[in-house]
Specification:
Length: 230
């Protein structure tokens, strides 16, 4: 058994694209309106997935949001390790320092793992191939923006092409890995006009507005994650 680090995982959230294809907005981290906290904006100090990572001083300055990364030994196998990370505006996923990669405990030597990435209102993705985590240098690299997510068919089922880069689909307000009517009726319809860290804030700008519905939910409704059930 070993401890290993994924130090160069790259993903982008389709709803947070702002300028160049690999630059995402940091509005949640930079928020200065009512309810925001210096050094955090409206991002929570404790991760929203496992509630295991808590930051006391500040989150990375270029942080977009929290993400959950899981490792599987087979396509539909059980999760063998998981870690919560900070997604930065350049697409990299780091620990809470913004500098180091994610550490996973209890991995088998010389084994390869499928990498699953989850976000609270985007469809989950998984690497198309198993990736070997090298315990000697701890720096394997996997780039989801190249359209390298697992899919049962066309790549467009798993990821959204934004310019020349592939991104995760936005609009999954209830985080059930399917963008359906309930994501609008139970989340956007109710939260429209509100600010803060909201599930229906699909573009991650800190406000639930018409754009979250018209530019993201309506374009992506009917999509479902291609990550196989366990």
């Amino acid at each position: 058994m070993k401890k290993a680090v994924i130090a160069a995982l790259t993903i982008i959230l389709g709803a947070s694209m702002l300028f160049a294809q690999t630059t995402m907005r940091t509005s949640l981290r930079d928020a200065s309106f009512e309810g925001s906290v210096s050094g955090f904006g409206v991002l929570p100090a404790t991760d929203p997935y496992l509630s295991q990572v808590t930051v006391k001083d500040a989150l990375p300055a270029t942080m977009v949001d929290w993400v959950l990364v899981e490792l599987r030994s087979s396509v539909s196998g059980a999760t063998v390790a998981s870690a919560v990370g900070c997604l930065l505006s350049d697409g990299s996923v780091t620990d809470t320092t913004g500098l180091a990669g994610l550490t996973f405990e209890g991995l088998e030597s010389s084994a390869s793992y499928y990498i699953v990435v989850k976000h609270r209102n985007h469809l989950s993705i998984m690497s198309a191939t198993a990736v070997q985590i090298d315990e000697t240098n701890g720096t394997p690299e996997f780039d989801f923006t190249a359209g390298s997510a697992y899919s049962t068919g066309d790549q467009g089922l798993a990821q959204k092409l934004v310019g020349s880069e592939y991104a995760m689909y936005a609009g999954d307000g209830d985080d059930n890995d399917a963008i359906q009517t309930a994501d609008k009726s139970l989340f956007w319809d109710i939260q429209a006009g509100l600010s803060g860290y909201r599930p229906a804030d699909f573009d991650l700008n800190g406000f639930v507005q018409t754009n979250d519905n018209s530019a993201f939910y309506q374009y992506n409704v009917g999509k479902a994650s291609q990550v196989p059930a366990q």
